[in-house]
Amino acid sequence: MGSYDIERYLNVRSAYGASFGPDGERLSFLMDTTGTAQVWTLETPRGWPEQRTFYDERVTFASWSPERPELIFGMDEGGNERAQLFRLDAETGEIQNLTAMPDAKHRWGGWSHDGDRFAFTSNRRDESVFDIYVQGRDETGEDATLVYEGDGWLSLAGWSPDDSRLLVSQAYSNFDQDLYVLDLEDDADERELEHLTPHDGDVRYQSASWAPDGEGIYLVTDKGDADTLYLAYLDLETRDLETVIDGEGWNVDGIALDDETGRFVCSRNVEGYTKLTVGEFDIDNPTDYEAFPEPDLPGGISGGVSFDPDAERFALSTTGDTVNTNVFVVDIEELRSSGSATESHDLETSATERWTDAPTAGIPRETFDESDLVHVESFDGLEVPGFLTLPDDHEEGQTPVIVDIHGGPESQRRPSFSSVKQYFLDRGYAYFEPNVRGSSGYGADYAALDDVEKRMDSVADIEACVEWLQDHPAIDPDRIAAKGGSYGGFMVLAALTEYPDLWAAGIDVVGIANFVTFLENTGDWRRALREAEYGSLAEDRDFLEEISPINNVEQIEAPLFVLHGENDPRVPVGEAEQIVEEVRDHGVPVRKLIFDDEGHGFSKLANRIEAYSEIADFLDEHV
Fold first, then answer.
1. Could you read off the pLDDT of 380-414 as tens digits, one per residue?
2. What is the 3-state secondary structure (H, E, C) of 255-287?
3. How far apart are CA 449 and CA 432, in angstroms?
4. Cα–Cα distance measured from residue 438 to residue 451, given in angstroms and rounded to the nearest whole number
5. Using one digit for the tens of pLDDT, what is the confidence trace for 317-355?
6. Does 63 reside within a domain?
7. Quick one: which of 162, 221, 489, 616 has the most CB atoms within 10 Å?
């Protein structure tokens, strides 16, 4: 048994989602001290924070007005993902529901620069598509103005510097998007989207930001022969696209840009670790920039950049295997004058200061274990990257291991802090997190290796990883468990049906058991996006039936634990119900846990404690 119970580990806190207030003297952030993420504010580094929201439900984001002491935050109910937007008056504490349409999703699009309006997209009119709305800061509900009727998955990338236009993104899949401009000054009955990125095939256009003069767009893309994303500048008049920062074989994940000064922070994802470029664009040549030293941050993974009003500082969150998430503030002028980035990894340097103090529940930070990046050769010679973490004082050949498979599938396991992982390490389990083919972060070609008819090749990667683990001197080859959530839950079920003799147990969290019923019952707003990855009901139904674990359930031999949220809008709870019934009918030990106040995952502390306590008991019994 470990030194601390799961409740202790789940009380390790995270602070993230920072936003500077309009005076630059106050910082908001999200922290889960109460058990679900709420809005907090802070006026001095590592001072006493003030809690601003007090809900049982999670807050998903918070964004300060650029002009007034108020912020807008988002929150859904019971994990249903139908987020509403709320305005918090930071002086009085008064909170107002701005959207008040609980049956619709609302996706934040940003404040106008004068703080008088905000924009969002919503599926109010038709559940399957997103329209564009603009709303005054004092308006509520139906007062919002429908400025454009969409016909797909629309989201917003911000207002132009003069607030006359909106930058619009339309997604067809995770690897294919388009960008448009919507001119709000056009007559409503003549308003159309101006298409900026016409293309053939799949091309990614992501993380778009207006240039300071409003005459161009910065974005990341893989247009052309690129396999990975690079930072580019798109001239709105000529439509010329010019490379600004090449990822050098790795994805440029995104850019945060202050559209008044041209200062920016750009991130690259190198084998799962973040490499930051901080700089300032040339006002006369938008593809030239001055680069500053890279800030010294702990943990290895950073993101969520927010500039202060004068762009003299920026806040971001940082995390790592042994570093729980906290917000740091970087002073750009000090960074600029430092000459070169220090090679040390102290928590604070002259340019970098930690602002939040999310606690570790009294667990010493030095007891957290760090992962090693490894590469496993799969059945066809493909190198599959992953992160292996061994517990302290493990016994050679005696260590059980949890193979934790990410969802997505266009996602990536990175060496960020996980209280659940550290809990199981403390209990003596090793932890292996593979990034099988289909994962993001390694180029478009790698991500496409599991598309539709190649789906089961990614499951074969799991077999190769398990065989590699069986040969590892620390691992007990007879005590290997599979765990995964969402698409990772499908991977667990598929691995148990395809390679039943490899596993001591399986844990399926909000996973897909039947691709046909999943696609039939998932939210209308996301079906087309998912069919682009998995295959369509119209054209690929037979194949989807063939690979669905529910239709191969007689192969499962390992005990199975299935957990789900009753309100899941992505993978409906029926997926859990049907796999449990079928596995039980075949005489295999199976356990089920359904939370009636959760959705696609578990956000409430009490539910997380119950879920992982039962998972620990299940693993102790069978592994």
1. 999 999 999 999 989 999 999 999 999 988 899 99
2. EEECCCCCEEEEEEEECCEEEEEEEEECCCCCC
3. 21
4. 7
5. 999 999 999 999 999 999 988 864 433 333 344 699 999
6. no
7. 489
Total of domains in the chain:
1
H helix runs in 419-573, sequence order: 419-426, 444-447, 455-470, 487-498, 515-521, 527-534, 537-547
The range of the structural domain enclosing residue 539 comes to 371-622
Q: Is the dihedral of CA 46, 51, 57, 61 positive or negative?
A: negative
At 428 the three-state DSSP class reads coil
Distance CA 589, CA 416 (A): 33
- The Cα diameter of the chain in Å comes to 73
Q: Return d(Cα 440, Cα 487) in angstroms, integer.
A: 14
Say whether the peptide bond before residue 385 is cis (omega within 30 degrees of 0).
no
- Beta strands 475-485 and 505-509 are parallel
Residue 552 lies in a domain: yes
| Spatial contact of 432 and 369, defined as CB atoms under 8 Å apart | no
Mean pLDDT estimate for the chain: 94
What pLDDT score does 275 carry? 96
In-domain check, residue 584: yes
* Residue 431: band (very low, low, confident or very high) from pLDDT cuts 50, 70, 90: very high
Give me the residues paired with residue 289 across strands: 281
Q: How far is CA 176 from the centre of its chain?
A: 18
The 8-class DSSP code of residue 69 comes to S
Assigned domain for 556 exists: yes
Mean pLDDT for 560-569 is 95
Q: 232: closest CA among 281, 270, 273?
A: 281
pLDDT band at 521 (very low <50, low <70, confident <90, very high): confident
* Secondary structure E strands in 184-342: 193-195, 205-210, 216-221, 230-235, 241-245, 251-257, 263-270, 273-281, 289-292, 301-307, 313-320, 323-331
Q: Please answer whether residues 23 and 71 qualify as being in contact, where contact means their C-beta atoms are separated by less than 8 angstroms.
A: no
Please, which pLDDT band fits residue 471 given cuts at 50, 70 and 90? very high
The dihedrals phi and psi of 261, each to the nearest 5 degrees, come to -100, -20
CB 332 within 8 A of CB 278: yes
- Residue 508 burial by Cβ neighbours in a 10 Å radius (0-12, 13-18, 19+): buried
Q: How many CB atoms lie within 10 A of CB 559?
A: 22
Q: What is the dihedral of CA 569, 574, 575, 577, to 10 degrees?
A: 140
* Nearest to 279, CA basis, from 293, 296, 260: 293
Q: What is the CATH number of the domain that holds 453?
A: 3.40.50.1820
